[in-house]
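sanity check this chain:
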Amino acid sequence: MAYNWAEMGRWLRFGVVQGALVLVVGVAVWANTSRVDAKVALTAASLLVGVLLALFGQTYQTGADPWQLFFIWALLILPWVYIVRFELLWLLWLGLLNAALGLYFHTWGGVMNVWFASSEAVFGWLFMLNTIALAVWEWGGKRRNWHVSPWSLRIVALGSGVSITLLMMTYVVDTTPSIASVLVVYPLWLIALYGVYRRWRSDVLLIAGGCVSAISVVTLLLARLLLWEGAWQEGEFNDDRYCGIGDGRRGRRVAEATTPRGFPMTRDADDLKARLSQAGIIINEPTTPVPLGTPWFVRLLQAFSGWLAALFLLGFIAMGMVFLVESPVASLTIGLVMISAAFGLFRKAQSDLLEHLGLAISFAGQLLIAWALAAFWEAFAYPFWSLLGWSLFGLQCALALVMPSQAHRSFSAFAACVALYMALVANAMGPVASGMALLALTALWSNEFRWPTRINHVQAWGYGFWWACWPFRD
């Protein structure tokens, strides 16, 4: 079909698209609109409307702006969206409006070139659009008993949060007067986000997203004050370089403080226990409390904070030690120190924040060592890439063995395969690398349970070799 599309005439192309459109609409009409197959059929029909509009514009070269395609597309499918009331179709329709609005600002720069005519104002309009949609969906779910799943609300909330965060970060960078109102709107949005999803409807994921937004804005503000404007003093370095770590811990505390701890189920459980005891039924309770696991989005927040803190920490260090990087010996020394520091962090890590902070520091140290090795081997007559590849292969093998981190072991195993491939390619033996990686992977998986005390290590190495087999499989 795709091969013969270019050979088709315009009428045949229109016939194919329109025939498919009529077919899926017929399926939706034949089925009841409340059934899943009707909803899926109308969703497919909505997509085909966009295909038909794109084909019409391509065939007749209408010269319409791209935003008009998405806006007309959204208008044409609005009756289907209202009739079927399918969440996926509502999200598609809202996405079309977002695309139309963004492309309109890209073309014209503002509404009638008057209201919010700056290029940054598009974030404000996107924020208003998605916030209104989120408020309507929340109101409909609470007051009108609309069937609204949490994942769709979170997607709409993501559009609202990303827009206002980008607008605030734009103001921090550029202080554009036309968007100064964000200084009032952004704190109100954070307060409303916490109030609604802490008191009205508990959703820890959205509160964690608000924490990520606040951390990003505050960190960018500190970067502007300390790095770009040069306003920091010598004594402020040690206090502010850990701002990302402090923000990450505060965000974690806010998110964990809002995590439900069993209310109101705890009260119901106590009442049930009391009634069972009165009836003479003995309840055997566990002697040790069940540990509460950290939600995945709180762990994601900690990982993000760890990488953010590491980036700024390494940036501050680079500002003071950039002259040392010019020396291969100094680069090698600093790289080894950073890897040793990462090793210590991994040994003491009790959270994802320190785990990912150690990963970032270790990766930076490995880059410095690779830079020093490249400068050292450049003076030798033997093929440069072969020497560098074998050196990095030995380094990654050592790290894969000694680093007390599952993620780092997997990365080092993968990087060792890449370095081995680089060394073998320099000696015209590139295809051997994939076979050796596959052989190592097979040997590990075949003997996984022979070392029960190191089964986690074996699995981490196996994942690294498995990833390495993909880019070298050809």
Notes: The chain has a mean pLDDT of 76. DSSP finds 19 helices and no strands in the chain. Residues 87 and 149 are 8 Å apart (CA to CA). The radius of gyration is 29 Å.
